[in-house]
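Mods, move this if it's the wrong board.
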Amino acid sequence: MVQRVLATTLLLGSLSTAALAQPAKGDPDWPCTQLYNPDLVLAHAWGGPDPASTGGHWAADPEIAPLVPRLASTVLPLDKALAELDGFLAGVPAAERPRRLPLLVAGLHETLDGERKKTIAGLFKLGRSQKTLAQAIRERNDRLLELRARANRSEEARELEETLQWDLKIFQDRRSTVNLACAQPDTIEKRFFALAKRIEAALGTGSGG
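Not the wrong board. Structure tokens:
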């Protein structure tokens, strides 16, 4: 039992180091292998007019306001979102496009950037939790090995064994969650890029896709 607990703990210790050692601008709590990027930059995906130059706000447009959350929601597959976007774009008169399409991009950027920031905040929270739990596992394992070295079969030793096994399970379960969640910021960024480029093409300022 002791050797199995120790081996598992050492393995998880190495995994936690690999998972948590990716610095996020000096912050060691970033748990992902993906590069930390806090912002969804509008200019990386949009080559059209500055939405601020339109003098309006996307939420004031009765068609754009309900469209933005639908297109931004990852519940809607990207191909279906693009198809819905195409339907909307086809109905916007050419004379209105220079004013309305930048507003649509602004709404998508604001919404998806907000969602991405919430995801990143959750990832930092998971990273901190994993670091705390990994440290607790190491400390409990050290204490258990100390007791075993003295041939101590006390209630404390039994409880430590049970706690360690539970902690290891939680650590592994969380790690699976972290790995899945780490892909979300990139998924959101790619969604915004695809939508913005389709709008840009309709505006006639880019090649589109």
